[in-house]
Predict the structure.
Amino acid sequence: MTDSREGLNAIQYLAHSDGGWRTLSQDFLPWQAIYWWFRCIIWRFMFQTIRDVALMLDGVTTRKW
C-alpha cells in the first residue's frame, strides 16, 4: 500500500462502523489490502512491545538500536 493515510482512514472507518473487513466502503482500497496492512502494523507493534517488556524486566532503561 502506497498511501498509509488511506489505510489508517480505512481502519478508523472499520472501528467506528462496527462492520467486518468485507463491509469496508468501496471508497477505500480492497479489504484484503487494508487487512494485510493492518496485520503488518500489529505484528510490528506486538514484537516492539515484547522487546520493551523484556528490556524492562532486565532492568535496561535506554534503547540501543
Summary: Residues 4-58 form one domain.
